[in-house]
From TrEMBL, chain A:
Protein name: Sulfite reductase
The organism of origin for this protein: Litoreibacter arenae DSM 19593
UniProt region (Disordered), positions on chain: 80-99
Pfam families per record: DUF2849
InterPro entries xrefs: DUF2849 (IPR021270)
TrEMBL record, chain B:
Molecular function GO terms recorded: 4 iron, 4 sulfur cluster binding; heme binding; metal ion binding; sulfite reductase (NADPH) activity
UniProt organism field: Litoreibacter arenae DSM 19593
Occurrences of domain Nitrite/sulphite reductase 4Fe-4S (ranges): 119-271, 407-546
Keyword Iron-sulfur attributed: yes
Entry's EC annotation: 1.8.1.2
Protein's name in the database: Sulfite reductase [NADPH] hemoprotein beta-component
InterPro entries assigned to the protein according to its UniProt record, in alphabetical order: NIR_SIR_4Fe-4S (IPR051329), NiRdtase/SiRdtase_haem-b_fer (IPR005117), Nit/Sulf_reduc_fer-like_dom_sf (IPR036136), NO2/SO3_Rdtase_4Fe4S_dom (IPR006067), NO2/SO3_Rdtase_4Fe4S_sf (IPR045854)
Domain of life: Bacteria
Domain Nitrite/Sulfite reductase ferredoxin-like: 52-110, 346-396
Keywords: 4Fe-4S, Heme, Iron, Iron-sulfur, Metal-binding, Oxidoreductase
Amino acid sequence: MSKPFTPKVVTANALLEGDVVYLAADDRWTRELSEAEILEDEAHAALRLLDGASEASVVVGAYLADVALKDGIPHPTHFREEFRTRGPSNYAHGKQEQI
Amino acid sequence: MYQYTDFDRDFLAERNAQFRAQVERRIDGSLTEDEFKPLRLMNGLYLQLHAYMLRVAIPYGTLNGEQMDVLADIADKWDKGYGHFTTRQNIQYNWPKLRDVPDMLDALGEVGMHAIQTSGNTIRNVTADHFAGAARDEIEDPRPTAELLRQWSTDHPEFQFLPRKFKIAVTGSPNDRAVIKAHDIGLRIVERDGETGYEVVIGGGLGRTPMIGKVLRDFLPKADLLPYCEAIVSVYNVLGRRDNKYKARIKITVHENGIDTIREMVEQRFSELRPLFRGVDQKMLKAIEAQFAPPVFQSGSVAAFMDAYHADPVFRSWADTNLTAHKNEDYSIVSISIKKHGQTPGDAASEQMRVMAQLAREFAHNELRISHEQNVILPHVHKSNLPAIHARLKAAGLATANIGKISDIIACPGMDYCALATARSIPVAQQIATRFDELKLEHDIGDLKIKISGCINACGHHHVGHIGILGLDRAGVENYQITLGGDHTETAAIGERAGPGFAYDEIVPAVERLVYAYLDLRTDAEERFIDTYRRLGMAPFKAELYPEVKANAA
């Protein structure tokens, strides 16, 4: 039996800036994971990934990343995705600059 | 130093214009990412975890003050005010924007620098001994050879789509400081019956299948260099596997076919190619060699050096650790550590780059080098200038006396930047350096090479570290494997895995246990960590790394 589907978001890197973006429900690409559309249905997730990947003049390398929901807010489940929400650990560069 | 000709300048300008147009076509949608990716990679542009990354070649690690200044200007204008020097004598900018990259490349072109073939399945930046032209043990300066290879391999039409990337390193000394045995082709300049030539080593490499290179020819006449290298790469181009990325490097081709078969094929191809090289390459080499003539060394008293050495213990410690014997008695080779304890190995702020550039101009015949160990070198310094240099370095946070010591760690960018990484490397390096600085044990421990990679591709050379650390993703958690006994020199060896890996917060204590074990086990302070390991083997170190196993067995 296949594993039950876990919540996901569509994520990619922006073509011009190169930074991490997430696909929102209204088709915007947002810099904030908290604004990403949470995909809890496998078929819908596959469709949204196609939507994201079709925006080749805006983003690069769209894929589905696992998230865990806490009070309805998505959090990364893997450390790689956690770093992508933040930036590197040796300097306060990247997304953490804004925090 | 090599000076660009009009041909070089025109070529670079044209190439940059091409790339500018390619970027525009990607942005306006005429090129897909699949079409654009190989083009950007050939020009050194990666897309990493948080941003683009531009990798700029510093051919054979040599640059002058003006070039270093431009590297600093680029860091300020288009990046975040710093650059990262890599284990292949490149500099990486971690935060460029796609639209800015053509301007960055034009700025580099102004001072004869480029990012061509710093990525992709091509012949990469040709590296060399960072002490080239200065080392006392040198037979001949390897840089003219490296420059000839750079010109030959740049845009070589036959070698733009190799099965996989291809790395060449050259040393002119019997003591190998260029890790030639871990390269696809390693060249060592040797002397036989009064004639200089090359020992040609192929099939070395680290990565997921580490291999020490094998000797293909023990003596290649100098004039045969290009046809012979062309024969090697063309045999590889035909034979190298394109069905499996992980088996595509020449080390696997050599391993699967055997060095004797490869040698036969190379010699066969060489016999076809040799007559096609009619000596133009050798004329070019002569012209290149003239440009690498040693500087006019100044003479004069070195008393200022001796006075400072006796009067100032901080200067003395730095001099004992960071200076290397120069072929001229009155000169020293200065290694500038860009690994102050707690800093990111290989990172230099733009202001630090400018300080080093200015020191090179004032005191060091306007020459700088980048080492594969991620430090910066002033290769030619009259000893009388050392106290002044040290004072200026100290003011810029560049006077750390740790070259070759436990905190002089090679670390790849790891998962703080790299899209391929499986774990972080930089914070592990920072914590090890900080810890041993706190313990004040660094100089007691002596020479020790720690090398850290954040994935199996081994950019951090962990296989050839005395202590190697490999960061992996084990079930969604960072985990660090230790290897012991690696050696990156002329006696190259692949380290042996010690056992199960350690969690992120266990790896620094594990290294500490290893080092304390060594201090207990060594015969005296002269016996280095690697010597003790060779004398006693893995067992005593393993017992310290895994005390619970020892306890259970008792």
